[in-house]
């Protein structure tokens, strides 16, 4: 597996001869595109047709649970089984400043793949497909810029899948209770905005 990791990294990683525009695109994907996840979840919770709000908020809740599972697992793996990033190992070229912490699995990859899979499973396939394209772009960019190995992204995808499975299991057992508590808390915290009509009740 290490040999495959090295070969794929060498094939993907940028070099000093790489074009500036491609490096700029990769930097945007690697650093900024992940903001789509919170923006999308907040938007789906706060706005939408009244007839779809319940189902949208269920998707947001389940996705958040999946993210919690996946990100906690990623943090635990990084602590228990630390793996050097390419630039720490002195391999390839680095084009994005990053702390020399454990590379496996990728936190960015875990978050975006979890969200993409959640939308594929529980919401609209076309939107989940678009998010999966974004996820692939983020995964490529972080390898291209030298901060991750390719298999770090595979690990993120697998954790996203496991996170979604666990979230569905939790929702099957406690979904009604979780939805009621989240709605009660939301209406308490956002009572002013709801009364003003800025967000949906």
UniProtKB/TrEMBL annotation:
Keyword tRNA processing belongs to the record: no
Database matches in SMART domains: acidPPc
Presence of keyword Transmembrane: yes
Superkingdom: Bacteria
Transmembrane segments: 28-47, 59-78, 111-139, 151-171
Catalytic activity line of the entry: di-trans,octa-cis-undecaprenyl diphosphate + H2O = di-trans,octa-cis-undecaprenyl phosphate + phosphate + H(+)
EC number: 3.6.1.27
Domain Phosphatidic acid phosphatase type 2/haloperoxidase: 60-168
CC terms in the record's Gene Ontology section: plasma membrane
InterPro entries linked: PAP2/HPO (IPR000326), PAP2/HPO_sf (IPR036938), UPP_Pase (IPR033879)
Protein name from the UniProt record: undecaprenyl-diphosphate phosphatase
The organism's taxonomic lineage, starting at the top: Bacteria, Pseudomonadati, Pseudomonadota, Gammaproteobacteria, Enterobacterales
């Amino acid at each position: 597996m290490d040999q495959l990791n090295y070969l794929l990294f060498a094939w993907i990683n940028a070099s000093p001869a790489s074009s500036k525009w491609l490096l700029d695109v990769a930097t945007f994907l690697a650093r900024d595109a992940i903001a789509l996840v919170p923006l999308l979840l907040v938007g789906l919770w706060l706005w939408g047709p009244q007839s779809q709000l319940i189902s949208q908020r269920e998707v947001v809740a389940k996705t958040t649970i999946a993210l919690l599972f996946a990100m906690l697992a990623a943090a635990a793996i990084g602590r228990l089984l630390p793996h050097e990033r390419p630039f720490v190992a002195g391999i390839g070229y680095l084009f994005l400043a990053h702390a020399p912490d454990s590379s496996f699995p990728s936190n960015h990859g875990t978050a975006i793949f979890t969200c993409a899979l959640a939308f594929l499973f529980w919401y609209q396939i076309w939107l989940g497909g678009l998010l999966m394209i974004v996820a692939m772009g983020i995964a490529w960019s972080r390898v291209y810029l030298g901060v991750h190995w390719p298999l770090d992204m595979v690990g993120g995808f697998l954790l996203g899948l496991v996170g979604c499975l666990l979230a569905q299991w939790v929702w099957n057992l406690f979904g009604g209770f979780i939805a009621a508590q989240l709605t009660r808390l939301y209406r308490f915290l956002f009572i002013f905005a709801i009364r003003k009509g800025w967000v949906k009740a």
